[in-house]
Design brief:
homotetramer, 400 residues, alpha/beta, Aspartate Aminotransferase, domain 1, Aspartate Aminotransferase, domain 2, 2 domains, 7-stranded mixed sheet, 14 strands, pyridoxal phosphate (chains A, B, C, D)
């Protein structure tokens, strides 16, 4: 157990700071997963989770990590040897690709530089070239947790449509769901993959597949072996609020509460809050004189900000300084950017003062670790958050 | 939420009554699953869980239900089309068989009457006949949760050995682990499948594979597609206390506490306690004039007792009476015995007075539902539990 | 921490088994007791608690044990040397008398045999004799926690009225509030004293004074020194939902939830449930061949039953047997009946199966401790609870 | 319930942010306060609390707010009409004085300007003048929660000694205990008054009297009426770990955990941490160009900082802005400084990043509320906390 005084700042890009209400909801006695009380709960969460995905189609809830929902999305819709087009947006795209290959799929990777999200034009080009429709699915990570770039899902959908290509469209929203606007139905996604431990504000242990009719149709002929991940029995049992095997009851209690909290706040306000904290964070990074990994401002993530350290600086050493001195966990650089990047998670149950504590810890960590920077980040964030300096010359502030 | 006064009696054969200490342990903030604090936790639970399986080999912990661990046991050790020998001990054996088939395995079922556990002689006979060693694995359910019969695992191991058969030996201990003596190493099991929500006293959401060297060796050539369930990366990461994908952090907090509680009580005392409650329950059933489903007294389960109702009685209606009147969940009859049987779970964090409440609820339910019986079950259980009537004629009790 | 397996049975007559919902409500972060969020809470509990006392007058909430509310009732209404008439119903009446004397009041005790509640006729007689109205207050314990006898409050009110005596009427409902019908306004009580840890299903730490106009009027001239207990500032601050000094915030969270639970169930159903469990308990006691301490069936308490052991039996030794063997706490005999009596609490968040576990623990404890008895108590309770044997000859039960 | 996203910042000078471990400890089932398990707890907390007061004498634990412990200190040691010398250090000194008068004591107030703590010389002067030893007790607030000034207790003790005056020395440490060094024995205090909801990191509901032999001796002849607060029975029962009336069991669970946490961290480190956060806060206040209420740097409180707003600014309006915009509660100015001062609590379970969030909220609040200031406070605090700018010219920081 963490024995440093005060609250730990869990500012990795997930798992996130779980709200007390959600933790307490999970701290209730486990119930009979075949009884009437569970049935009411099951119906409530199966319905509520659709609002979060902005879909009227079924959403499957797995007692599993997000990785399981990646596997489920592929295993239910594809057959051994099928070709899947993926985009190398970062580490999680790379892991999903590796997973696909372990399942016996062929994959093709449109290479990326880890500083931009998936590019609709590159995807369009590849699909146009695929006259024989060998590609069975296009897999894109919405919010690349390793880089903090957000892919333009509607534009990719248009690219697929304009190519007249029948491939399924599979999207990973693990670190965007409940933090960044995502519309399963309106954006024409076939399978959306989600997880509990980010914007949904739950501990890890639940993951999701939101479906489309086309995905369901595909599942009927898909020949990848599957049992735990199989949608079919799930959908049958879910109709009555039940599950074909024992669900993770207490995590579902938490999900029930988390959905209620998100809908009470209102999704649009949730997204605006994340965008605001993201903007404040980028202003801090700029004020420090450091560089945000994501090159395209239009793609900046509302969930996290990956920050590049100057050459010669060890980002993991920096993170250790912050953890040891300030009881805050930051995200490591992964894969290609390991050691060069640290990531600030600003998602989930989060507010302005938590962000200031977070940015303050980074700023002091830069001091202590000896990373060259201007000590002006927190103040820049405050200028933005207080909305004050926006409007110049209001005379309220005495010059320093 | 259950709004009947007082505590719900969750007397299904799992999920079980989760102890307050375990619920409270899970109600702590989620931590960074890549940080040093998690690492210490990871090492502790990965080591501690071995004691529960009575093994010195690795145990894999999945963020998944028990069904996932069934799949994992097969997917890591077998190849498409492999033949698996199973024994029809009850509903869970049947479900495991179905799962195996969905994975692309061939199965053979030694039929059973659901009133006895897997029979070593029948298995020996079949293995002896399998001169070509077509059978790649023997799968047995240790404690059949649908019937309350316990299979003689050491005898089955001997049967395999005496047949000189190279098949792997896979055992499901989902409802026996932490309740009924089970010794992975000593009994020569290759893969043991476990779950969190029974004797381990946790909510559902974690499951386990305990391995043998032979199983690990088999995994190297096994060709069933697998990624989430793959042991290989798990074992690499587990060496340092970490996991290849996000673990179910808060359930691991609970596991840490549950292991501590089981080892503090001492496994042999835990098993004795379950055996004692099982014996008391059977005495109650006999006193009621009802029949225990399991025919062989040597196979009576320490975890649960399945009770046959007289012909013409509807066990599900009876269970509904008990739930509505007495706020107690009993287990339904499953599959072949649906509607004929109800099951009393007496496992997990349980004691004598909880058992008396349980048996009292059954006895009163029999009254109200109009099931013919003698109203002497609770008193028979008390005679046994108080240890009193054992020794005749001590003169303490005034005749009624 | 209790390390015996399963749940502890806390069957003393308070503190009682606190419901999970109440414990979890208390497990939320402490808030600013001067802020708007607290204000809403304060208004809610100050209003809700009136429903429990069945009054439209103010109820004072103290951060203190019930003993503090005893002191408050006297200190706010009386002056040094005032004479108070009390009735020796049992240990708690005796303690209240001792407290009054420590405050500088004179007391007069109508002696009782601890087997009946306060007697309206004896009180009437004494008041009629008090022509000079020297007696300033009549203090009665509604439910004597040491004996399990319930005083006829309306009859005592009538006695006071018929004597035309101006004395204040102060009633202790610590172990009846929320368990046994009590009507502050309708029954004309001037100050009602209550506590949190019994029928209100909270941990100890809050206590109450419900007031009448006459009590408020008396407080203006009462000269006992008081500050912490002073009603005046409380009433001023309470108007806006606040308190004059720091309130026990987290216990108030629990109170808020407990009031909601009681009103959701409905007070009349709460009282009926307690009466039913009390009746079942007495039937068990009779079936054991033991004697209930309270001699008058009309006065039997819905909260607890005090049981006399036969001469020569040590009730405390018996209780130790039950605690050591069965993880159940029973109440000790107090004062005059110490060692001769044990008390079974059957109040608060309680249900039929918890009662059967409780009675089963007593019955087995009698076996083990060697207390002569008939082993028929639990079954007698079940007959009553199942409502079965009420209606003879329905032929459902097979003779034993 | 607070429904703004993220954690509330409870930065009033108590109640403080209760650690999760303490909340969870309180969220365990209530136990029998007369049983062996409670006895072990009682002994543990009664012993442990002495370490916190740095005394080897008994400490009384009341189920009451701090106000109750004020009353207890007086009621146990004094008689009606006794003269008590108090020092007007601020609002809490004034409230204690008012309380003393309600109990029937005479009081004399050495007037103060609310910007300094109690002055040893003024006290010495008054005691020297009291040749007849009419003054029976000197009452001083150690850390004046309304002003943030800390009184020099050892110097006041010396003043009493040097005057050769027999008055008792009573000290209120409600907002210093567990935050600012206080040594009951070494400093020769007769009664120390403490509360649970500040440095002890508990919710409100417990309060304390630490005693001296002289105080105990005085209690034998003290004639103020008392019962609930009476030390005598407490001390008798406490010897065996029990209490004369029902204790606040679940708050004691929390106390047990809180003591363990404080002793694990080590009192000297706890005090240093508070001093450090206090210093950082003052540097922020200075950088803002605002004034700390406490005039004497040697008396600056480690628990809280009271900040004066410029003339014409409404501190309560400012606090409302901070609460509404940033979900943070700050302390109001009380009594003489109402509306002119706001108070920042930086005590209890607190760390650097929580402080930065706190100061950031104040700084942004000043922006929004239009309070003239330099926007340099958070950065000044970071300079101090990171320990960086202390040592000039280390060349790590790029000039802005």
């Amino acid at each position: 157990m963490n024995t440093m005084p005060g609250r730990h700042f869990l500012q990795i890009p997930g798992p996130t700071n779980v709200p007390d209400r959600v933790l307490r909801a999970m701290d209730m006695p486990t119930m009979d997963h075949r009884g009437p009380e569970f049935q009411a709960l099951g119906k409530r969460v199966l319905s509520g989770i659709r609002s979060i995905f902005q879909t009227e189609n079924p959403v499957i809830i797995y007692p599993a990590s997000g990785t399981g929902a990646w596997e489920a999305a592929l295993a239910n819709t594809l057959s051994p040897g099928d070709l899947v087009l993926m985009y190398e947006s970062g580490q999680f795209a790379a892991l999903w690709k590796k997973l696909a290959e372990k399942l016996g799929l062929r994959t093709e990777f449109i290479s990326g530089d880890w500083r931009r999200a998936a590019d609709p034009e590159a995807i369009a080009q590849r699909l146009n070239a695929d006259k024989s429709h060998e590609i069975k699915a296009v897999c894109v990570v919405h919010n690349e947790t390793s880089t903090g770039c957000v892919a333009p899902i509607p534009a990719i959908r248009r690219a697929i449509n304009e190519a007249g290509h029948p491939a399924l469209f599979l999207v990973d929203t693990i670190s965007s769901l409940g933090s960044i606007d995502f519309r399963h139905d309106e954006w024409g996604v076939d399978v959306t993959v989600g997880g509990s431990q980010k914007g949904l504000m739950l501990p890890p242990g639940l993951s999701f597949n939101a479906l489309s009719d086309k995905a369901l149709e595909a599942s009927k002929s898909a020949r990848l072996a599957r049992s735990y991940w199989d949608w079919e029995e799930m959908l049958v049992m879910n109709k009555n609020g039940f599950f074909p095997y024992t669900p993770a009851t207490n995590l579902l209690y938490g999900l029930d509460t988390a959905i209620e909290m998100l809908l009470d706040e209102g999704l649009s306000r949730v997204f605006a809050r994340h965008a605001r904290h993201s903007e404040a964070t980028r202003r801090a990074v700029e004020a420090w004189g450091l560089e945000v990994l994501c090159r395209d401002p239009a793609q900046h993530s509302g969930s996290l900000t990956a920050v590049l350290l100057p050459d010669g600086q060890d980002a993991d050493q920096f993170r250790k300084v912050v953890l040891d001195h300030f009881n805050m966990s930051l995200g490591a650089g992964l894969g290609k950017v390991a050691g060069k990047v640290f990531r600030i998670g600003h998602l989930g149950d989060f507010n302005d003062l938590m962000l200031l504590g977070t940015l303050g810890g980074v700023e002091m960590g830069l001091d202590i670790a000896g990373v060259p920077h201007r000590p002006a980040g927190v103040r820049a964030a405050m200028d933005f958050l207080s909305g004050h300096r926006q409007s110049e010359g209001n005379g309220k502030v005495v010059a320093g």
